[in-house]
Amino acid sequence: MSATMTPHILAIDQGTTGTTVLIMDKELKIKGRHTQEFKQIFPRPGWVEHNPEDIWLSVTKAITSALKAANVRGNDIAGIGITNQRETTVLWNRVTGKPAMNAVVWQDRRTADDCASLKAAGHESMIRERTGLVLDPYFSATKLAWILREVPGARAEADAGKAIFGTIDSYLTWRLTGGAEGGVHVTDVSNASRTLLMDLRTLKFEDDLLKLFNVPRACLPTIVGSAEVYGKTRGLNGILPDGIPVAGMAGDQQAALFGQACFDPGDAKCTFGTGAFMLMNTGNKIVHSKNGLVTTVGWQLKGETTYALEGSAFIAGAAVQWLRDGLKIIKNAAQIEALAETVESSGAVVFVPALSGLGAPHWRPEARGMIAGLTRDSNSGHIARACLEGIALQNAELLQAMSRDAADVTLLKVLKVDGGASANNLLMQLQADLLKAPCLRPRVIETTAFGAACLAGLGVGLFQDLNQVRKVWQEDKTFMPRMADEVRDALQKKWQRAVAWA
């Protein structure tokens, strides 16, 4: 590291539609950033894929551009943190690095029938008890089982340990640390908790779960903590020098919970990205949901594990993108706020954003998006406002379920919000109104990458404890609830009727 430069952290946020890289100094101030989008692949209705090479290229381009924007050299990077789209499943050859097929994305619904068959066979209660998850195509195990079953040669190579499985955190760490030339094959415990293969109590991939999904142990990564040195960069000529520690890792939503400094039981956040993801810290307690949520690992630091309750709505910001690209009633996502404010209310119009099925608390992969209540005087403003209300209403359902599940942990007092769509003031006000709780937006809304940077800083010893992270978090704006109870009740009743039809 240069004697004239302060150490920096490079945070990779590998998301569903693009990769963002942040360069941050040891005070966690952003010095440079770059986002690189990549191609979305839709082979059939309900199927979503990514080319792993496209993902890798987006990462390398974003790293190069972010370093340039920060005017920082690779030698001045003290550590790398990774956060990633979770559940997205890759199987690749350990020797050649070639993927067996495109990555099967978390949104993909091709294994809905497989999940239905496992439910019919009576396996769901055991899976919920062991993994904290539900039997849904969302999670990785049925995606991996599908690849092993459908791709010629994949099963034999996986049985022999030649083909290896990973979520995107695992794939990127392997590539960063040398790939076919000795790349490290690991996954952090938060990502492992999203596979349907790891027991929440033992934090290990368990034989009975592997047998149920017919997944060979030989293809699995080693489960590691969320802030430690996993390996060092190797062979990234022209991108990064050899020897930089890869030292922080968490799934995107857990990284956002960490980046929002939600370190105490009862602290909660909601990330508004492609989907909307609400997580509540439950400390060292495994809280099994009775209300349609899932239980997950938040992070593991120095051997101590923090758990969380999570509610996932598959479509949030993607609904706004659909209004832009599908209906073409806006030219860019930022225009929806002004369009929605051209009307005082959505009237009778209701928008259920189930464009990829319904996630928590309903878990209905067969559900479809719906706009209902249209009349002759309905216009694009009503649809835009109903879209924002739909995003906020589905999150209100999640919080209601979370409050019932976590009643013995603590009561939610505020909700911290982040993600690209949290910049929409009208959406945040609607969210506060419908939750009947304040929503706090931080100055840095890229909290997934921020959380990864914090974990990497802890992993390489730049930060000593959580208090240093807590001090960095700064509030931008608080949205206080102000909607009349009768208006809120009417919106919720309209929503409940529509969801039943979706």
Task: Walk me through this protein's architecture.
There is one protein chain. The protein is of the alpha+beta class and about 500 residues long. About 35% of the residues lie in helices and about 25% in strands. The protein is built from 16 helices and 23 strands. Strands 17-18-16-15-21-22-23 form a 7-stranded mixed beta sheet. Strands 3-2-1-5-14-13 form a 6-stranded mixed beta sheet, with helices on both faces. Strands 4-7 form a two-stranded antiparallel ribbon. Strand 1 and strand 2 form a beta hairpin. It is globular. The relative contact order is 0.12. The mean pLDDT is about 90.
SSE layout and pairing:
Blueprint: E1 8-14, E2 18-25, E3 30-37, E4 49-50, H1 52-70, E5 77-84, E6 90-93, E7 103-104, H2 112-120, H3 124-131, H4 140-150, H5 154-159, E8 163-166, H6 168-176, E9 186-188, H7 189-192, E10 198-199, E11 204-205, H8 207-213, E12 222-224, E13 227-232, E14 245-251, H9 252-259, E15 268-272, E16 276-281, E17 294-301, E18 304-313, H10 317-325, H11 335-340, E19 350-352, E20 370-372, H12 380-405, E21 415-418, H13 425-435, E22 439-442, H14 447-459, H15 466-472, E23 475-479, H16 485-501
Helix pairs in contact: 9-14, 10-12, 12-13
